């Protein structure tokens, strides 16, 4: 290798990125510019990059970041189309970086970016794999949040420790710094769905990590709406159960089973009320019960969806759901009626009919009711 090549390599090495800050975003247009500015200010001259992973925000967050990235090479954008989810966004952002240290923060400025230098210093000084920004240890607090939310957070943290391989004060934190080699060793076992990437990382590691904590005050969101929802709570519970069962739980199949169970209860309640109580014909009772069950399934399924339908879109989705389920319902009702006419007990006939219709419903409704607005092929655009 020539002397010029050696000098060039040394010059490039001096400019190598030491830290990547991953900011997953969805509808954070009002916050993202200030979040990036504050982060760059506290990092100063440290060689770093900020990777914004945006899930095709309707408010144009990606467009704002794209303009910033054209002016500052330290800012990068991964614009995802056709898929959403905080954990998968963080994983994708981390995998796109070559930095030896990876930090994760929310873009809504609830995490205190001024803690980053202290987290970096602690990682270097104590040779740690992971440094967690904690709300539950010395120097940390939940800020001005309502007492009920604080209590929910504390209960969730207690539950999370059942799957962690180590003792940490805030396993639900979304603010942490991790070494790249430790992250990559656990990455193949991570559950890409869900919102608690730190908990997943701790539960998926094949060795006990060296962990440190830095306290910070959890701030109130400046603009926009919180992403906390019923769906997030369900995803969290799925993550806990998945890790406790050794990763053998299929979230989508479990979701379908829970939805189906609610529909099954409604179906039999309506069927019994009409057939036994009102003495309607079995065929009529079964048809009305099927419609009631489908309506229940839609309501429950919609509540558990990350891309939940609202307003006029919910009614459109409901009608589409009924039309898609109609073929399965026809088979279900017809088969159950035939069994009942052949003197099969009404409950068994109804159950057999439901089983026939469930196969169709599972295969079709997920694809065309909630995923239809998205592209059939997930796309990621990086800049």
Description:
The structure is a single chain. The chain is of the alpha/beta class. It has 2 domains: 10-249, Alpha-Beta Complex (Spore Coat Polysaccharide Biosynthesis Protein SpsA, Chain A), CATH 3.90.550; 251-370, no CATH class. The protein is 54% helix and 11% strand. The chain is built from 13 helices and 8 strands. It has helices spanning 3-14, 29-43, 61-71, 86-95, 116-126, 147-160, 180-186, 197-204, 230-244, 251-277, 282-303, 311-341, 346-370, and strands at 19-25, 48-54, 75-81, 101-104, 130-134, 176-179, 211-215, 379-382. It has an 8-stranded mixed beta sheet with strand order 7-5-6-4-1-2-3-8, sandwiched between helices. Helix 2 (29-43) links the parallel strand 1 (19-25) and strand 2 (48-54). The protein is elongated. The two termini are 33 Å apart. Mean pLDDT is 79; it is low at 372-378.
The dominant shape is elongated
The helix fraction, in percent, is 40-55%
What's the mean pLDDT score? 79
Look up the CATH topology of the largest domain: Spore Coat Polysaccharide Biosynthesis Protein SpsA, Chain A
Number of DSSP-assigned strands: 8
Q: Strand fraction band?
A: 5-15%
CATH architecture of the largest domain: Alpha-Beta Complex
Given as residue ranges, the uncertain stretches (5+ residues, pLDDT < 50) are 372-378
| Distance between the first and last residues' Cα | 33 Å
Order of the strands making up the biggest sheet: 7-5-6-4-1-2-3-8
CATH superfamily of the largest domain: Spore Coat Polysaccharide Biosynthesis Protein SpsA, Chain A
The secondary-structure element order is: HEHEHEHEHEHEHHEHHHHHE
Using the CA coordinates, give the radius of gyration.
Answer: 25 Å
Structural class: alpha/beta
């Amino acid at each position: 290798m020539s002397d010029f090549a050696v000098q060039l390599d040394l010059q490039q090495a001096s400019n190598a990125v030491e830290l990547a800050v991953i900011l997953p975003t969805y509808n954070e247009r009002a916050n993202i510019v200030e979040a990036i500015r504050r982060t760059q200010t506290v990092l100063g001259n440290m060689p770093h990059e900020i990777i914004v992973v945006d899930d095709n925000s309707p408010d144009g967050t990606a467009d704002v970041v794209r303009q910033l990235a054209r002016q500052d090479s330290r800012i990068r954008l991964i614009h995802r189309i056709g898929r959403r989810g905080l954990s998968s966004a963080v994983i994708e952002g981390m995998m796109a970086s070559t930095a030896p240290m990876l930090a994760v923060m929310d873009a809504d400025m609830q995490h205190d970016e001024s803690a980053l230098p202290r987290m970096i210093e602690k990682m270097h000084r104590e040779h740690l794999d992971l440094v967690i920004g904690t709300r539950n240890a010395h120097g940390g607090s939940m800020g001005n949040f309502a007492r009920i939310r604080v209590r929910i957070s504390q209960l969730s943290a207690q539950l999370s420790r059942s799957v962690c391989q180590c003792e940490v004060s805030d396993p639900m934190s979304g603010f942490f710094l991790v070494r790249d080699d430790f992250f990559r060793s656990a990455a193949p076992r991570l559950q890409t769905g869900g919102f608690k990437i730190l908990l997943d990382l701790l539960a998926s590691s094949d060795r006990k990590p060296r962990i440190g904590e830095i306290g910070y005050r959890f701030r109130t969101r400046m603009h926009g709406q919180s992403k906390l929802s019923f769906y997030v709570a369900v995803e969290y519970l799925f993550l806990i159960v998945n890790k406790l069962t050794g990763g053998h739980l299929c979230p989508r199949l479990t979701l379908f089973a829970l939805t189906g169970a609610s529909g099954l209860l409604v179906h039999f309640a309506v069927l019994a009320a009409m057939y036994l109580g009102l003495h309607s014909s079995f065929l009529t009772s079964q048809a009305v019960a099927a419609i009631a069950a489908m309506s229940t399934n839609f309501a429950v399924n919609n509540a558990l969806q990350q891309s939940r339908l609202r307003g006029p879109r919910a009614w459109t989705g409901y009608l589409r759901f009924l039309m898609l389920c109609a073929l399965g319902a026809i088979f279900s009702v017809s088969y159950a009626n035939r069994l009942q006419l052949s003197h099969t007990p009404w409950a068994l006939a109804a159950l057999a009919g439901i089983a026939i219709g469930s196969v169709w419903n599972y295969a079709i409704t997920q694809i065309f009711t909630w995923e239809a607005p998205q592209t059939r092929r997930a796309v990621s655009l990086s800049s």
